[in-house]
Design goal:
Blueprint: E1 7-12, E2 21-26, H1 28-31, H2 37-53, H3 55-76, H4 82-95, E3 100-104, E4 110-114, H5 120-125, H6 128-141, E5 143-149, E6 158-164
Antiparallel strand pairs: 1-2, 3-4, 4-6, 5-6
Helix pairs in contact: 2-3, 3-6
Length: about 160
């Protein structure tokens, strides 16, 4: 798959001994091998919504989605410590198609990484979806959450640095 340009690896130094870790991800060509008419439909619906009803209608949709997501996440993320809460959130996000993972960094902060974005088409039309997710993470984790990498800005993944308040 790498020879065909469908996947690419990035080496990441490991803590302690051993070879660097290979982190594999789909390339844009690899993503195109999975037909998905949903993305085009989503983008069209959102564009039409704004054209017909205005930006406030789209803002209302994003706010409603955020409220529903926040309620659901708060029911499922209930660990007493931040590291466990981040792991719970990563598990939820993986079940939603984000291929998420988390780990603790050497400086004591935590990193939540999403290797896929199932809402990329919607987020490409309206950045409010990404803002909403960031606000939801902050509320659910009760921590400072900063996006360090962003798929929509050309990164291979979305990555969030999490530090306790």
């Amino acid at each position: 798959m790498a020879e065909e340009g469908l996947v690419e690896a990035v080496s990441e130094a490991t803590v302690g001994r051993g070879r660097p870790r290979q982190l594999w991800s789909l390339t844009p060509a690899g993503n195109q091998t999975f037909p998905d008419g949903h993305a085009e439909l989503t983008a069209t619906i959102l564009t039409t919504l704004v054209a017909q009803l205005g930006t406030p209608a789209l803002d209302a949709v994003i706010s409603a989605r955020e409220a529903d997501t926040l309620k659901r996440y708060r029911e499922q993320v209930d660990a007493p410590d931040i590291q466990s809460r981040v792991r719970q959130l990563a598990a939820i996000r993986t079940s939603e198609g984000y291929m998420a993972d988390s780990w603790q960094e050497a400086d004591g902060s935590l990193l939540l990484v999403e290797n896929h974005c199932p809402i990329c088409a919607a987020a490409g039309v309206c950045a409010g979806f990404c803002r909403s997710e960031l606000d939801t993470f902050r509320a659910v984790l009760g921590a400072k959450v900063e996006r360090e990498e962003h798929i929509l800005l050309g990164a291979r993944r979305c990555a969030y640095r999490i530090t306790p308040l």
